[in-house]
């Protein structure tokens, strides 16, 4: 199947060419790979998580979890007007 894409801005075309060359691929092969990757029927959350794969270390993840726990709301706290005795 032959296909053409019209209306691409010049900067997008240039970016595709540069990235294809950097990866040692033809422009066609590069675009086919991008399109193929984007049409995979995948949970959007999994897709986002997969995009970060290999970019963070175990230590980064542990630090993120520590910060998440530190920033978590403490639901045991009472407002100024609340009486902790329940009266």
Structural descriptors:
4 helices; 0% strand; 87 residues
Blueprint (SSEs and pairs):
Blueprint: H1 10-22, H2 27-38, H3 44-52, H4 58-71
Helix pairs in contact: 1-2
Q: Structural class of the secondary elements?
A: mainly alpha
**Count of distinct strands:** 0
Straight-line distance between termini: 75 Å
What overall form do the CA principal axes indicate?
Answer: elongated
Fraction in beta strands: under 5%
Helix and strand sequence? HHHH
Radius of gyration: 24 Å
Largest sheet: none
- Unreliable spans are none
> Which percent bin holds the helix content?
55-70%
Kindly summarize this structure in a few lines.
The protein is mainly alpha-helical and 87 residues long. It has helices at 10-22, 27-38, 44-52, 58-71. Helix content is 55%, strand content 0%.
Give a structural overview:
The structure is a single chain. The chain contains four helices and no strands. It has 87 residues and is mainly alpha-helical. The chain has a domain at 16-71. Helix 1 crosses helix 2 (27-38). The radius of gyration is 24 Å and the shape is elongated. The relative contact order is 0.05.
């Amino acid at each position: 199947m032959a296909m053409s894409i019209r209306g691409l801005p010049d900067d997008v075309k240039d970016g595709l060419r540069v990235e294809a060359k950097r990866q040692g691929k033809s422009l066609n092969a590069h675009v086919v790979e991008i399109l193929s990757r984007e049409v995979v029927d995948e949970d959007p959350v999994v897709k986002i998580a997969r995009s970060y794969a290999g970019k963070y270390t175990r230590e980064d993840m542990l630090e993120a979890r520590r910060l998440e726990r530190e920033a978590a709301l403490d639901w045991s706290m009472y407002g100024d007007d609340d009486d902790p005795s329940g009266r």
